[in-house]
Amino acid sequence: MAASNPDTALRQKRPPKWLEPLGLLFPGAFWLIGFLLIPTFLIFVKSLVPLGKQGFGIENYQRVFETIGGNFIYLTVVARSLGYAGITTFFCLLIGFPVAYWLAVIAPKRWQSLLLVMFVLPLWTSSLLRSYAWITILRPTGLLNSFLGLLGIPGINLLNKAEGVIIGMVYTFLPYMVLVLYTSLEKLDLRLLEAAADLGASSVQTFFKVTVPQVAPGIVAGSSLVLISSFSDYINPHLLGGPASSMISSLIELQFLGASRDWGFGSAISMVLILAVSIVIALVLKYGDRSVVSDG
């Protein structure tokens, strides 16, 4: 009787080829389903359960549009959160682009890595500690007013105000913007800048017609990252802002841990937050990967 071929026996034990892609997808799919889709589904189901009632309904979502004295109290918080996030994104882009450009293009190559690490070094510390540091700076008797007093300038109170929240959020999320922009600007084709200068383009024209189109995906990605993160920020509004500066994260926390313990309404607001973030991510996936757009 002829001995069996080892290669043939190995092929017979090997699973079918159509199972191999499923095996490669299993780790990511398990993580996605177990830690994203299932928790989101549970939050959605909980959002359909009104407080003190049996069955399911959309009352919790209707409460988002509830008015008191003619004012949309909950929509105001959502709009305020979106406004703070938009302002934070604008200032992070305004400050972060020159910094990232200097790090990626102007700074000596041998110092770029060290300078980048030094700039993102605050991310290695707790965001809670950084917010407490800003309390020390912004309070009426803090370092800022002490410095202004030495210059003979009247002190200002930025703590427990919208301005203080914006300052804390910009400081918190600026390194993320710089990191994303640095990655795009590092690939900037400097020959195109030289060609634009040779053709008589001004520095402003070169910036908007050559530089910005090349790094547009990085601008979209960095802005989206900051917008999403700042929209759901909790620590800075909680520590640096007052009741008039509360954001959607504080509203959700109040529903789950406050006196009312209205988990259904808190889940409904969470779904509103998830929907807003999903819309931003969808826009990034659609437009963020586009390369240089031609004028013609």
From TrEMBL:
PANTHER family (UniProt xref): INNER MEMBRANE ABC TRANSPORTER PERMEASE PROTEIN YDCU-RELATED, INNER MEMBRANE ABC TRANSPORTER PERMEASE PROTEIN YDCU-RELATED-RELATED
Protein name according to UniProt: ABC transporter permease
Coiled coil: none
Cell compartments where the protein resides: Cell membrane
Pfam families assigned to the protein according to its UniProt record, in alphabetical order: BPD_transp_1
Alphabetical list of PROSITE patterns matching this protein: ABC_TM1
Gene Ontology, cellular component aspect: plasma membrane
GO biological process: transmembrane transport
Record-annotated ABC transmembrane type-1 domain positions: 78-284
Protein's membrane topology: Multi-pass membrane protein
Family membership noted in the UniProt record: Belongs to the binding-protein-dependent transport system permease family. CysTW subfamily.
Keywords, sorted A to Z: Cell membrane, Membrane, Transmembrane, Transmembrane helix, Transport
Principal location: membrane
Membrane-spanning parts: 21-45, 82-107, 114-135, 141-159, 166-185, 263-285
Organism: Tumidithrix elongata BACA0141
